[in-house]
Automatic annotation (TrEMBL):
Record GO cellular component, one term: plasma membrane
MF-aspect GO terms: GTPase activator activity; zinc ion binding
Keyword Disulfide bond: no
Record-annotated Arf-GAP domain positions: 403-525
InterPro entries in alphabetical order: ACAP1/2/3-like (IPR045258), AH/BAR_dom_sf (IPR027267), Ankyrin_rpt (IPR002110), Ankyrin_rpt-contain_sf (IPR036770), ARFGAP/RecO (IPR037278), ArfGAP_dom (IPR001164), ArfGAP_dom_sf (IPR038508), BAR_dom (IPR004148)
Gene expressing this chain: ACAP2
Keyword tags: ANK repeat, Cell membrane, Coiled coil, Endosome, GTPase activation, Membrane, Metal-binding, Repeat, Zinc, Zinc-finger
The protein's name: Arf-GAP with coiled-coil, ANK repeat and PH domain-containing protein
PH domain boundaries: 270-365
Biased composition (Low complexity): 383-392
SMART domains: ANK, ArfGap, PH
Residue spans of biased composition, Polar residues class: 563-581, 796-805
Biased segments, Basic and acidic residues type: 371-382
Length: 805
């Protein structure tokens, strides 16, 4: 009931007015209590709704996982996928409903309680106070004696002022009461009406959604009856087959016949013979492992699990021999010997051993009779298990060692003498600084720790191509311009050959640890440097747009290839054909079958390279925004994108953090910007200076994600070698492998799968196992070599487009 107070009645201050005021105050107090309770209940409902949505989302994800697991059953996969999409829509509708409840009930009513009821309470306090003052003035006026005129006048004046103040305040109080009583109706009804409309919209959306889904549900309901009948029929057939096989097994047990393996060269699936054998590993412990062996298409292969890609033991049986082994402790052993290695195996019985030996001998004889396309395999003298990626038997150059690396590094101006003391003919280098050192200075650099300097021999150590290019991009001249910029100004003496070690050591520590001679830039110089680097990156990007179009890679001339089962197969993800003959046809994903480029890539001349490095087409356009402040970290950030190693080295010398995060640009790091810039050497420089290869941006993407999305195969190879986590998922729950498969980039899919396979094999076979290491390192060396020396051969795929279906 709406309670109002009459303005004229309030001036009389009658008992009727006081009773009305008391009734209003009690009503408002109760209203406040009810509204507080309703708001709390609304908050509880919203929290429970959010918890329900979270649990419902997990349930929907479970439906999606079940659909993905049922890819072989199109009906189940498509139906569950559609159901999951519909339920996800309902979750979205629920989220909207709870948001509306929060706005209409919680926020709106809380505002009414805090604002309007607070004003009422303040007015009530003033009214109570002035009422007490008026009552006191009346009493004092009544008590004034007749014969004391000054007291009478004082009491009269006080009473007059108090009555005037009372009239003013009581009128305001009555106004506040009447406004509150009027507003409470509209506020409460408006809030609840908005909430009810939100429910109306929610149920309308749900009805429309399930109206669209209803035909599919009716169709599935009609199919269920037939599915039940088919399931019963399949059950009867399987029970009959079970009985038949059980009788056959009983007869086999009775005859004690364990030689049911037969050699069948004309088998439909190409597998002439298969069965379990024990294989002796080639590691130091010579452990024996039980594997599933098969002879198929003149090859001897084995698998640990059915889903594993077959490992080729003998690539061509025409090149091998088989013999009994009686000189070891184990029974029933035989050995298959090829030109490059031998494999020791053990059967379960003597009859089985004889059957396998006979099968291998028959396969050898059959292979020599067949003179088809496989004839050219006789010219290959290396097993596929070595992971050779060369075509035509030609060995290509791998990592550089010795004089070759020395000559390339010393040819850089300033590198012919030690960077710190000037000793001629240095034989050592600091790979993270990019300088050459004499033997004495290299020892001092080692004592600084690898976080300051990483020392490597120019003659004794192996040099990867990207590391060698890093050394050639920097050099003593560039580094000394940075680290000795203020040496002469400070009057510091540079050591000479033959100076005492302690003097040289003190100078090197002052130079690299304390960075005493580095010239710190002013704020204006730093700003100009950053802006210049950002413009340089744009010039590099824009210049690539006007380059002549790059011709597509030559179409591979595929020879009849086969996987371990002798059949040309297609990857389910990328559609790229895999070949097991070790030739350079297309990319494969098994540790024993690896090819790197097209079949005639070795014969075709390399395509002309532009004068500058070809910039990528980044997933997100790199835009320079005026930052809040300029810092060495920002210089390193843009220098990494602009591919300027000298500016990067300068930023690090000025104190830049190598893992600096740009909070104004999706929390990207210099290493991610180096990926955007497309330079393999830039990434190598940052990694040598302790950049975190797994640091993610605001989208949950690390450098490996970005390199995969941009199709930078060489960078992917580099990050995997440096321990990048290929199982990391971004905020869209996509791993690098998922992205590479969606982009159909077979090169990167191969690298990711091979790295994962190598990791799983090492974990499965123990910490001392070397299984797969030779193949893994061999293939990664080939990719590294190609990325550094012939990158055009890897630029065969477009960058990843997340919108592409």
């Amino acid at each position: 009931m709406k309670i109002t107070v009459d303005f004229e009645e309030c001036l009389k201050d009658s008992p009727r007015f006081r009773a009305t005021i008391e009734e209003v105050e009690g009503d408002v107090c109760e209203l406040e209590s009810k509204l507080d309770k309703l708001v709390k209940l609304c908050i509880g409902m919203i929290d429970a709704g959010k918890a329900y949505n979270a649990a419902n989302k997990q349930f929907v994800n479970g439906i999606r996982e079940l659909a993905q697991q049922s890819t072989r059953d199109e009906v189940i996969e498509s139906s569950l996928t559609k159901f999951a999409e519909s339920l996800q829509e309902m979750i979205n509708y629920h989220t909207i409903l709870f948001d509306q409840a929060q706005r209409s009930i919680k926020t709106q009513l809380q505002t009414f309680v805090k604002d309007d009821l607070r004003k009422f309470k303040e007015a009530k306090k003033q009214f109570d106070k002035v009422s007490e003052e008026k009552e006191a003035a009346l009493i004092k006026n009544a008590q004034a004696p007749r014969n004391k005129q000054h007291e009478v006048e004082e009491a009269t004046n006080i009473l007059t002022a108090t009555r005037k103040c009372f009239r003013h305040i009581v009128l305001d109080y009555v106004l506040q009461i009447n406004v509150l009583q009027s507003k409470r109706r509209s506020e409460i009804l408006k809030s609840m009406l908005s909430f009810m409309y939100a429910h109306l919209t929610f149920f309308h959306q749900g009805y429309d959604l399930f109206s669209e889904l209803q035909p599919l549900m009716k169709q599935l309901g009609g199919q269920l009856d037939q599915l039940v009948v088919d399931a019963a029929k399949e059950k009867r057939d399987m029970e009959q087959k079970h009985s038949t096989i059980q009788q056959k097994a009983a007869l086999q047990d009775f005859s004690n016949d364990d030689t049911k393996l037969e050699y069948n060269v004309d088998a439909d699936n190409g597998i002439a013979m298969e069965g379990y054998l024990f294989k002796r590993a080639s590691n130091a412990f010579k452990t024996w492992n039980r594997r599933w062996f098969s002879i198929q298409n003149n090859q001897l292969v084995y698998q640990k699990k059915f889903k594993d890609n077959p490992t080729v033991v003998v690539e061509d049986l025409r090149l091998c021999t088989v013999k009994h082994c009686e000189d070891i402790e184990r029974r029933f052993c035989f050995e298959v010997v090829s030109p490059t290695k031998s494999c020791m195996m053990q059967a379960d019985s003597e009859k089985l051993r004889q059957a396998w030996i006979k099968a291998v001998q028959n396969s050898i004889a059959t292979a020599f009779r067949d003179k088809g396309d496989d004839g050219e395999k006789l010219d290959r003298k290396s097993s596929t298990s070595t992971g050779s990626l060369d075509s035509g038997g030609e060995l290509k150059e791998r990592s550089l060692k010795g004089e070759s690396a020395l000559q390339k590094v010393l040819a850089i101006p300033g590198n012919a003498c030690c960077c710190d003391c000037g000793q001629p003919d240095p034989r050592w280098a600091s790979i993270n600084l990019g300088i050459t050192l004499c033997i004495q200075c290299s020892g001092i650099h080692r004592s600084l720790g690898v976080h300051f300097s990483k020392v490597r021999s120019l003659t004794l150590d192996t040099w990867e191509p990207e590391l060698l290019k890093l050394m050639c991009e920097l050099g003593n001249g560039v580094i000394n311009q940075i680290y000795e910029a203020r040496r002469e100004e400070l009057g510091a003496r540079k050591p000479q050959p033959g100076d005492p070690r302690h003097e040289v050591e003190a100078y090197i520590k002052a130079k690299y640890v304390d960075r005493r001679f580095v010239r710190q830039p002013s704020d204006e110089e730093l700003r100009n440097k950053v802006v210049s680097l950002s413009k340089q990156e744009k010039r590099l990007s824009s210049s690539s747009e006007h380059l002549p179009p790059r011709p597509p890679p030559p179409t591979p001339k595929l020879r009849p290839g086969s996987n371990a089962s002798g059949q040309t197969v297609k990857s389910a993800d990328s559609g790229i054909q895999n070949s097991a003959d070790g030739s350079r046809e297309m990319l494969a994903t098994t540790p024993s079958n690896n090819s790197l480029a097209d079949a005639d890539a070795a014969e075709s001349p390399p395509m002309p390279m532009p004068a500058t490095l070809p910039p990528p087409s980044p997933c997100k356009e790199v835009v320079f925004y005026e930052p809040k402040e300029y810092s060495p970290g920002l210089q390193l950030y843009w220098a990494s994108c602009a591919r300027s190693l000298p500016d990067m080295a300068e930023a690090l010398a000025h104190g830049a953090e190598v893992n600096w995060v740009n909070t104004e640009d999706d929390k990207r790091t210099p290493l991610i910007m180096a990926v955007q810039g497309g330079s393999l050497v830039t990434c190598e420089f940052l990694l040598q200076n302790s950049a975190n290869v797994n640091q993610q941006d605001a989208q949950g993407r690390g450098p490996l994600h970005h390199a995969t999305m941009l199709g930078h195969t060489g960078q992917v190879c580099l990050f995997l070698k440096r321990g990048a986590n290929q199982n990391a998922a971004d905020i869209d729950e996509k791993t690098p492998l998922t992205i590479a498969v969606e982009a159909a980039n077979a090169d990167i899919v191969t690298l990711l799968r091979l790295a994962k396979m190598n990791e799983e094999m090492r974990e499965a076979e123990g910490p001392y196992s070397q299984s797969g290491d030779e193949t893994y390192q061999d293939i990664f060396q080939d990719f590294t070599h190609m990325a550094s020396n012939d990158p055009d051969k890897l630029n065969r795929y477009q960058q990843y487009d997340p919108q592409r279906p």
